[in-house]
Amino acid sequence: TEEMVAQAERLRGRFQGDPAAEYACAQINAEDAERWFGEGKEPVIKEEARLVATIEQIDRAVGIVPRGAFVKTPLGSVRENRNFEGLSLTEAKKLSSYFHFTEPVNVKNKTLLEKADLDPSTDFLDSLEHDIPPGSWTVQLEKGGTVVVLRSLLWLGLTFYHVPMTKQYGYIYFGTGEKNLDLPFML
């Protein structure tokens, strides 16, 4: 739930590895504590709930797909594009060829002139090139230029891969579960 995500965002530190471990929520004000935990209960969050909320945060922030992998039908539903054959190598090296796989925010705020260059069936998601802060993604070529790898500097440990000219793409996260809050100072 949104409440679980909000609670988990306030916690700092690494995971302990015990799903039953409890974290005290000292930074939560009395009104939020009563709403989230009930009256008279100690404001604590189990590690299991924190893990689920952290995975949700990571998926929202850095879950990405290549341009054209999904299409929006005229009725508004989003489906996997059966005709997607992968990005070309030149397109795969551009940050603008990758989109966040979440509800779009920035696309709706574009002017009509900016929307004129977009294809409404494939460009309905937010592009990575407009992420804040700029420079929060690295693009690298691996295996002699046959695999494009994107890494997030916001959630250290997230790696996205795409094999150009094929349908192969995906991402994986091997990290500490901590957001890199120092990123704006590092850039």
From TrEMBL:
Locations listed in the record: Cell projection, Kinocilium; Cytoplasm, Cytoskeleton, Flagellum axoneme
UniProtKB keywords: Cell projection, Cilium, Cilium biogenesis/degradation, Cytoplasm, Cytoskeleton, Flagellum
The keyword Cell cycle is assigned to this record: no
UniProt KW ATP-binding keyword: no
Any Gene Ontology CC annotation: kinocilium
One of the GO biological process terms: cilium movement involved in cell motility
Coiled coil stretches, renumbered: none
Primary site of residence: other
InterPro entries the record matches: RSP9
Superkingdom assignment: Eukaryota
Family: Belongs to the flagellar radial spoke RSP9 family.
Name this polypeptide is given: Radial spoke head protein 9 homolog
UniProt organism field: Opisthocomus hoazin
